[in-house]
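As promised in the previous annual report, we have extended the structural survey to additional targets. Below is the entry for ARHG4 factor.
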Amino acid sequence: LRVNQDEPMDDYPLKVEGGKEDDSSSGTRRFGMGQTTKDQMRTNVINEIISTERDYIKHLKDICEGYIKQCRKRADMFTEEQLKTIFGNIEDIYRCQKKFVKALEKKFNKDHPHLSEVGSCFLEYQTEFQIYSEYCNNHPNACMELSRLAKVNKYVYFFEACRLLQKMIDISLDGFLLTPVQKICKYPLQLAELLKYTNPQHRDFKDVEAALNAMKNVARLINERKRRLENIDKIAQWQSSIEDWEGEDVLVRSSELIYSGELTKISHPQAKSQQRMFFLFDHQL
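The corresponding structure token record, generated without further manual editing, is:
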């Protein structure tokens, strides 16, 4: 028996004893040892995906139980609004990732990891992964709030006590909170690596290919939303800097400043010319 039916026989250098094919389970296992390099590489990538996912779940659990739970006990130090600013929707992310890792583990083939079909898991969760958008957009606010609290000793000692109680490595809280931002960017890299070592005949090939595109789209969508929010912020700041603003807010109709520059305004019939600054938005001038 060949473990991986997609590979030609020549790719299995290990012969079964006596040169005869053995269809017993031990024969299967012996042939399994003669995996191709590509299969071995695929096994390595699958193992990495599973192990990093388990580490990540542990990391999220530590933040939710080691920090958020402790902070909620101290209403004298933190308001719920403040916790929302610092931790964003990390608890939603934790719930989502717990389901995702279970789905991955179901698809994991312990005996022959290279045969695991994990592509469908990413496809199934691509919509749920969009919750990272809210987290990534909020992250700069979290950093600002934490740097403000870092100037107050009681907060510094409190966060350090949380870390030690939860037996977490020696990194500051803002370092821990960066992990989800890095994680969502890492998925396309892992899937690209997985696709590289997946034969086109492998049952997982089409799903991994689709999953790679899906996760690139998720990352693109998150970047796009972040860019849009930054644009809206810029317009709000721009408008507030103008004295005696009249009429409705620019943001009622527009969300992006496309171009700005000087133009000459000519008024008829005297053909009087005046220099004016013009601002072109996506829905108005």
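Residues 254-281 form one domain. Residues 42 and 115 are 9 Å apart (CA to CA). These points will be discussed at the next consortium meeting with the crystallography subgroup.
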